[in-house]
């Protein structure tokens, strides 16, 4: 009977050691650092672009989304639509639109004013409802 207890205690100890070994953190083999280097070496730095300046100026590098496609060529400015050049223009904020009279606003500015004013009123109503 005591032999059976000793065997069961030994099996428990062995399984605990096995669990410790399996749960132990290990490191990759062979990844030794070079002498005298500290941390990330030159191989970790981002690679410089190998494209020539001529290719960069004539194509839109990285704009291809098709598997078998090629990067699109850069066209002269006259080939692009007029609206494209106004996409990044600054548009007036709601406070600036409120200062102007409604009659003096253009149609686009009036549409923007109505949209921003509705959005502000909805946010204000939501804040009031959340507090109560």
Topology:
Blueprint: H1 2-22, H2 53-58, H3 94-99, H4 107-131
Q: Count every helix, treating DSSP H or I runs of 4 or more residues as helices.
A: 4
How does the helix and strand content classify structurally? mainly alpha
**Cα-to-Cα separation, first versus last residue:** 73 Å
- Biggest sheet descriptor: none
**Could you give the order of the helices and strands?**
HHHH
State the low-pLDDT regions, or none.
none
**Overall 3D shape:** flat
Summed over residues and divided by their number, the pLDDT gives a mean of 77
Helix content: 40-55%
What labels would you give this structure?
132 residues, mainly alpha
Task: Explain how this protein is built.
By secondary structure, the chain is mostly helical. The chain is 44% helix and 0% strand. It contains four helices and no strands. The longest helix is centred in the C-terminal third of the chain and has 25 residues, at 107-131. The protein is flat. The model has no long low-confidence stretch (mean pLDDT 77).
Provide a quick synopsis of the model.
With 132 residues, this protein is mostly helical. 44% of the residues lie in helices and 0% in strands. The protein starts with a helix and ends with a helix.
């Amino acid at each position: 009977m005591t032999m059976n207890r000793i065997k069961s205690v030994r099996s428990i100890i062995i399984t605990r050691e096995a669990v410790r070994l399996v749960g132990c953190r290990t490191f990759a083999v062979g990844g030794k650092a070079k002498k005298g280097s500290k941390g990330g070496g030159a191989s970790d730095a981002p690679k410089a672009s190998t494209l020539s300046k001529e290719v960069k100026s004539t194509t839109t590098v990285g704009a291809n989304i098709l598997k078998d496609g090629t990067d699109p060529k850069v066209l002269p400015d006259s080939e692009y639509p007029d609206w494209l050049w106004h996409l990044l223009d600054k548009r007036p904020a709601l406070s600036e639109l409120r200062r102007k009279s409604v009659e003096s606003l253009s149609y686009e500015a009036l549409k923007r004013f109505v949209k921003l004013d509705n959005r502000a009123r909805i946010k204000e109503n939501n804040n009031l409802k959340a507090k109560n």
